[in-house]
């Protein structure tokens, strides 16, 4: 019976930079002596790890994989540990993690500012390293978002009320680390107000076809340019032929 074996310490998931070395641990108790065998799974292919027959499995992170440990006793009872994920970050900026890293969360991907139309999906993403792997909690305008507890924040149909400032907290038993805050705008399919004001100023002039040309020739910290005066003159002629009223300014 599988209940003849009890796992007293489950392995834990980690999120680490490529090349990082650590140990997965599993502990169990049984009525007889116990045997351990570790397995890994990458892209749905699961295989036994040769020689991995101890309670502790040393790992040097190369690629993201899943791991589990099978424990059996002399009566042919067997039990598997939880599957744990070893998430490996291939592209981590130099200097991360810090030299004296103890496994506290380190943000390696921050969310980015977005403008999303009403009804369209909103996706924000962050990532953090940590041993154990960090848990995540998203916030909007400082308020905890009850169901957003993953690296990816996903809202299928964005509403205007989803606008605001978002950030995420990554935490484990060593501490917590916050992403940068980003502004998310929902429903602004038209340009912001200041752009519209500029358009109102420019478009009435454009209907009258007025061109403003500025030719800068004299610079305080740069040698004089050769052609601005000539360029402005030639452009003025061309624009006048196209029906523009031209205003030319030099220096």
From TrEMBL:
It comes from the Eukaryota. Residues 207-251 form the Caspase family p20 domain. This is MALT1 protein. SUPFAM superfamilies: Caspase-like, Immunoglobulin. Residues 5-81, 105-185 form the Ig-like domain. GO terms for molecular function: cysteine-type endopeptidase activity. GO terms for biological process: proteolysis. Keywords: Disulfide bond, Immunoglobulin domain.
């Amino acid at each position: 019976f599988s209940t003849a074996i009890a796992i007293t310490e489950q392995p834990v998931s980690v999120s680490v930079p490529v090349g990082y070395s650590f140990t997965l641990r599993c502990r169990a108790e049984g009525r007889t002596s116990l045997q351990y065998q570790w397995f890994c799974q990458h892209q749905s292919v699961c295989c036994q790890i040769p020689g991995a027959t101890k309670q502790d499995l040393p790992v040097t992170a190369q690629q993201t994989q899943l791991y589990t440990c099978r424990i059996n006793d002399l009566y042919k009872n067997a039990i598997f540990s939880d599957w744990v994920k070893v998430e490996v970050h291939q592209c981590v900026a130099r200097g991360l993690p810090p030299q004296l890293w103890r496994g506290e969360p380190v943000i390696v991907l921050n969310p980015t500012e977005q403008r999303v139309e009403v009804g369209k999906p909103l996706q924000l993403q962050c990532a953090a390293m940590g041993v154990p792997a960090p848990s995540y909690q998203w916030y909007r305008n400082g308020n905890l978002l009850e169901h957003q507890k993953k690296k990816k924040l996903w809202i299928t149909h964005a509403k205007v009320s989803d606008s605001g400032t978002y950030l995420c907290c990554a935490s484990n038993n060593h501490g917590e680390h916050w992403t940068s805050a980003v502004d998310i705008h929902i429903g602004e399919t038209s340009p912001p107000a200041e752009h519209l004001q500029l358009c109102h100023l420019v478009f009435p002039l454009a209907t009258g076809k007025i061109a403003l040309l500025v030719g800068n020739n004299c610079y305080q910290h740069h040698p004089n340019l050769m052609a601005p005066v000539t360029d402005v003159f030639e452009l003025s002629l061309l624009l006048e032929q196209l029906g523009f009223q031209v205003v030319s300014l030099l220096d």
